[in-house]
Amino acid sequence: MGTSQKNTRMRSKNSFASDNTSTACPQVMDAVVAANSGIVQSYGDDEYSLRLQTTMSEIFETPVTVFPTVSGTASNALALSAITPSFGKIYCHGLAHINNDECGAPEFFSGGAKLVDVAGENGKFNAETLDATIDGRDVVHNSQPACVSITQACETGMVYQTHEITAIAATAHEHRLKVHMDGARFANALVTLDVSPAEMTWKSGVDVLSLGATKNGCLAAEAVVFFKPELVGQFSYLHKRAGQLLSKMRFVSAQLEAYVADDIWLRNAQHANKMAARLSAALAELPGIELAYPTQSNEVFVRLSDSVMRELRDGGFDVNVEELDGSAARFVTAWNTQESEVDELVKVACRTR
Amino acid sequence: MGTSQKNTRMRSKNSFASDNTSTACPQVMDAVVAANSGIVQSYGDDEYSLRLQTTMSEIFETPVTVFPTVSGTASNALALSAITPSFGKIYCHGLAHINNDECGAPEFFSGGAKLVDVAGENGKFNAETLDATIDGRDVVHNSQPACVSITQACETGMVYQTHEITAIAATAHEHRLKVHMDGARFANALVTLDVSPAEMTWKSGVDVLSLGATKNGCLAAEAVVFFKPELVGQFSYLHKRAGQLLSKMRFVSAQLEAYVADDIWLRNAQHANKMAARLSAALAELPGIELAYPTQSNEVFVRLSDSVMRELRDGGFDVNVEELDGSAARFVTAWNTQESEVDELVKVACRTR
Amino acid sequence: MGTSQKNTRMRSKNSFASDNTSTACPQVMDAVVAANSGIVQSYGDDEYSLRLQTTMSEIFETPVTVFPTVSGTASNALALSAITPSFGKIYCHGLAHINNDECGAPEFFSGGAKLVDVAGENGKFNAETLDATIDGRDVVHNSQPACVSITQACETGMVYQTHEITAIAATAHEHRLKVHMDGARFANALVTLDVSPAEMTWKSGVDVLSLGATKNGCLAAEAVVFFKPELVGQFSYLHKRAGQLLSKMRFVSAQLEAYVADDIWLRNAQHANKMAARLSAALAELPGIELAYPTQSNEVFVRLSDSVMRELRDGGFDVNVEELDGSAARFVTAWNTQESEVDELVKVACRTR
Amino acid sequence: MGTSQKNTRMRSKNSFASDNTSTACPQVMDAVVAANSGIVQSYGDDEYSLRLQTTMSEIFETPVTVFPTVSGTASNALALSAITPSFGKIYCHGLAHINNDECGAPEFFSGGAKLVDVAGENGKFNAETLDATIDGRDVVHNSQPACVSITQACETGMVYQTHEITAIAATAHEHRLKVHMDGARFANALVTLDVSPAEMTWKSGVDVLSLGATKNGCLAAEAVVFFKPELVGQFSYLHKRAGQLLSKMRFVSAQLEAYVADDIWLRNAQHANKMAARLSAALAELPGIELAYPTQSNEVFVRLSDSVMRELRDGGFDVNVEELDGSAARFVTAWNTQESEVDELVKVACRTR
Questions:
Q1: CATH fold of C267-350
Q2: Contact D111/B113, CB-based, under 8 Å?
Q3: Residue D174, pLDDT above cutoff 70
Q4: Does 3.40.640.10 match the CATH number of domain D26-262?
């Protein structure tokens, strides 16, 4: 392990604000450093990017087509634009990141698609509600049903079970919709379900995946993964035109390669989830704190009494009441969250006792 | 200097295909490794990104607003979309990268702008031709003149003199056009002119700059630089929506900071230019080789006889006849091109003697 | 009155399907015929179009800027695109025509705006709910609040009172949103409220109006009306680029001129509303029929028992259960609906007694 | 013939400014008046619009799919957007209306397509030049070749011979491009060539036609005509979303039906062309006047000496030096231009003798 690891231990009290505030894990950083060698082709024709196709096909146990990107927003918006015409409807949960946190990127990349809320408890919707929500097919006055997008793990930190994904995808396909998965926290969901990447995606009916890696230990690495060659179409041009086909793509592909090698992604996610479980269990015991959602991945949502919130803020923690539902505070753990950090947060939250 | 430098020496015979095929320079890579430490705010609110505003304002000797990106295509398209309405005209040379090599990104990001060729020798146009080309102002049937874009150094490797930029910008401003500079090889032009960054930009009338850094020693780091606060407008939203506001932005900002520190960018560019000059001078002496354009930065364009081309290809060099003008072959030098590499290329090209 | 009137009496039993299925009124048709004379300037520089600015300014008792169009969809989408950036949010009722029946035109014309549902009973929302719904201002990850759109008369046929419009507009302006009114059935609402066009629009805080005329007696004539010169901006180019600046614009402007002359629009609307009131009152008395919404303009929404629906269909009426709320059937009256037609419909609906 | 004809005789001296300044012909106006009768389905499901499919299929001697519109700009932009992806290239002559006079509508409707000039004399290009211009296929950095558009009659008033169209279309198809014809003055070209509509379009390889009718005697009626069912795709939604699917579509379809009935369109065009020929022949004889292009349809382009131009202006003629090539003045004749008007123009132009 190289020198790149040395500084990743220092953490402030703001560690729980987001998994985006954390560093890259040493294995990924080492891979970036190692990739900084020799002349290679630019714009994704390098050996790292070419090899990534094979690696990901092995990971997903089927031939996939992978387009590395450096942004979750771009991944989602690009993937959606590949399966949605400019007059299309994208069905998603009202809390979905694509609906709330991407400044209209899906609308922009698709040329005007409409995001339609599918209602559901706890950030998840089910096949029945989706079925009841889809409308307007073949009516010239209506934006046309095009695809459904689920977030895994979803915005509340909860996870779709594979049978739930399967049911949603079956309903979608009956309605001739494509199925997109926003996998910003894909690995966190994977280790929760303890299933294979294949089982959580194409075997359950997912057509296109936005595979997140940045939050779970990369510097800036995401990927759009197509499970059906016929959906790729002319995606290369969309990818290039969006400025996501980097000139020195080796540095992104090398991250992704290291990320999935030796189960790094799974181990990172397992650790993050374990820290979230520890935090969740401890907070749930405290007075003035109520879990907003069951903790199923690396996000803990709690409703806090005013006094607990004051203590936490006085204690230096940056407690934001999430816009998610206007009342729950979010604490996110990462691949390198320390038990001691969790315990300190709990200790401060205890003070109001 | 860290371990990140160790592998940057190995080069294949394809070294001259593009400066995008080269590695990052050690100072930049070290900065990335160093940035991988501690919790910092995400999405550009980190200390690296905040500090970059100051650093760049010092570099440019005026308060600038900087938006880091990871793609030259996105930088250009975003910058242009900030100064061009969806029904606007962007005046540029017919050979311009924005016109030929970005798969329609400027049209896409702007929502439909039209790129209009301005004629000119050797990849450059002048103020008079621009003046004669601008038309349609206030005619409702015409896309509206909105901005002019010049590439510095331009696509033939030649460099606009500051008085030329000043004249073009003055003409543009007379016509109420904004002035954009595509600075993919900004540093290479800067050292050629031996002027300050301020002189080559806002002092000459440039309003918005796409500052390239990737080609000249970064991994993936570019920036949109606004010289006039009133032009920034709501650019933050365009930046975010395009997927160029990275969640772990520190890794981009750290590159840019290291890049301009200690004159790294200038030294990298000086070296690349020097190697190009050496190559150009040597090739110009050879039979069967003719310089297509004067060599003014780090690109050498030559017209080759069939036998020279054969020798080079047999010698393992990947000689592409550029699409630029259908006949000239391009050789690009980089921050780390070795004299020995130049000399070997020349030696092989000599064999037909 | 010319020959153009002669054929407007014949009506089938489908008369209540929509006000779009009716003819143009004789005064408007005569104006079109009269405009078919002499050479006039094209593309809106004709005397009819120029005069229309004055006429409309008189009608609205303030200097307005008017852009004639031929489509309500285009009117709305164009108007919204003038006051919404591509990353903007348009607040509207979930039932709004712009949200459901324009195949994504607002999203397309704006380059990706997001339509956000504001909840409310009976197709109307109020200022408080709007206030509570507006969010995301100045958050870079969110589409930005840009405007609010109300439909007058709204999709259930109900009408916003001027004090309701005033309150909504005040809330919108407090949040720096612009106020758009979709006036597809503007005249119908106007005569219901018995207020002036000025009172129902700019005096109540409306910034931009899509003035409908086609449904109420024109062939194909709508207009975008700006009440604030500073909002017009470069709308001319949007108008032209959308294909709504007709080459022989005289034929549209002449319709609009005739439409508002001699209170034709008010008289047409009064008649349509009166017929709707007659129908509504009669149907409300019948068993198996329940009014879905109070009848306030020229649309009657009723929930029908299966037997009533069967009778109506057997009787030759094209009863569509509206998609509006999945259960109510819509009957629309027009400027030329006859009492006898209303009475026949009621008679057939009575048969189940 | 109805009263609608009565006023079409009066003409000012500006008669030659454009064919858009003229009235509708009586047969078309009568059809509009006749269509103003009875209840019909809205949004193109009326009997007029349905019948139009058959009528046009007979006119073109093959089953066609027709979408009526009211704007040539919208027709062109919609047709092009059906055969061009958002990252596509549209090849056209530099003088093409779609390139110069539609305020970027093709770019807007397509979501960012690039118009590429194909060089050629007199406003026409040929197959060889097209072949040499097409480039970038399958290069991810380039906008992708998608279609070619020719204007018939073209912007100089000259007409493509069928063998020229056939050669261009064959070249286009070899390159996997679709072929669009901008037929703003379709009938004028048709009578010049004296061929059938089929011969000038699909039999020569045209895939999609923008059929103009407004200039040649309609009020506002154009159509997008697809000759290959497989190209129609989801055009209905594009058509609706653009605001070109009018609610009372009967009034557009009725115009088109009358326009092609009884050879009205051909007779109108023959007359206009004959008047242009008369004007052209007379002017060519005069000193200080030089034909800029051979007169082949209903447009006459002449270069005028200063004194002739002065006489014409003094004589009340609105002589605009066309932007077409910066020096030629355009005189356009219409379906109802009188011999006396032609002769008066010639007489005034003679005065400098």
A1: Aspartate Aminotransferase, domain 1 (3.90.1150)
A2: no
A3: yes
A4: yes
- Rounded to whole angstroms, the Cα distance separating A106 from D186 reads 40
Q: For the domain made up of A26-263, give the CATH fold.
A: Aspartate Aminotransferase; domain 2 (3.40.640)
Q: Give the span between the Cα atoms of D154 and D164, in whole angstroms.
A: 13
Place of tokens 């379906």: D335
249-278 in chain A: CB under 8 A from chain B: 251-252
- Asked if pLDDT for residue C185 goes beyond 90, the answer is yes
Amino acid at B332: V
Residue type, B340: S
Q: CATH topology for D14-23+264-350?
A: Aspartate Aminotransferase, domain 1 (3.90.1150)
* Cβ–Cβ < 8 Å for B172, B148: yes
Report yes or no: A209 and A19 within 8 Å, Cβ to Cβ: no
Return the CATH fold of B15-23+266-350. Answer: Aspartate Aminotransferase, domain 1 (3.90.1150)
In angstroms, the CA D353 to CA D342 distance is 18
- Cis preceding linkage at C153, omega within 30: yes
Residue D140 and residue A240: Cβ atoms within 8 Å?
Answer: yes
Put simply, the answer to whether C85 touches B245 (Cβ < 8 Å) is no
* C-alpha to C-alpha distances, A79 to A60, A107, A321, B348, C52, nearest whole angstrom: 18, 12, 30, 46, 47
d(C-alpha D243, C-alpha D221), whole Å: 14
C83 touches C231 (CB < 8 A): yes
pLDDT value for D323: 61
**Whether pLDDT at C148 is above 50:** yes
Q: Which of A205, A214, A298, A284 is nearest to A255 (CA)?
A: A214
Structure-token pair, residue D144:
């992708």
pLDDT at site D314: 87
Return the exposure string of A321-352: e unless at least 16 CB atoms fall within 10 Å of the residue's CB, then b.
ebbbbeebbbbbbbbbbeeebbebbbebbbeb
Q: What tokens were used for B190?
A: 């800067």
Rounded Cα distance between B62 and B47, Å, is 21
- Give the residue from D5, D21, D185 with the most C CB atoms within 10 Å of its CB, the best one to mutate: D21
Q: Mean pLDDT across the stretch B199-207?
A: 98
Q: Which two tokens stand for residue B149?
A: 């874009």
What CATH code would you report for A10-23+265-350? 3.90.1150.10
* DSSP summary character for residue A216: T
Query: Do the chains contact at A38 and B12, CB–CB below 8 Å?
Result: yes
pLDDT at B8: 33
Question: What order of strands is seen across the sheet that includes strand C222-226?
Answer: C65-69, C222-226, C208-212, C178-183, C144-151, C88-93, C114-118
pLDDT confidence tier of residue B321, bands split at 50, 70 and 90:
confident
Please tell me the distance from the alpha carbon of residue D124 to that of residue C232, in angstroms, as a whole number. Answer: 38
Domain ranges within chain B, ordered by starting residue: 15-23+266-350, 26-263
* Per-residue model confidence as pLDDT tens digits over A172-200: 999 999 999 999 999 999 999 999 999 99
For residue C3, pLDDT beyond 80? no
Cβ distance of C141 and B43 shorter than 8 Å: yes
Interface of D with A in 103-142 (CB under 8 A): 111-112, 140-141
Residue D313 has a CB neighbour count (10 Å cut-off) of 12
Q: Determine if residue D181 is left, alpha or beta; phi over 0 gives left, psi from -120 to 50 gives alpha, anything else beta.
A: beta
D1 has pLDDT over 50: no
CB B222 within 8 A of CB B212: yes
Q: Which strands form A222-226's sheet, in the order they lie side by side?
A: A65-69, A222-226, A208-212, A178-183, A144-151, A88-93, A114-118
Residue with the bigger pLDDT between D340 and D322: it is D340
Is there a contact between D313 and D9 (Cβ–Cβ < 8 Å)? no
Residue bearing tokens 């007696």: C217
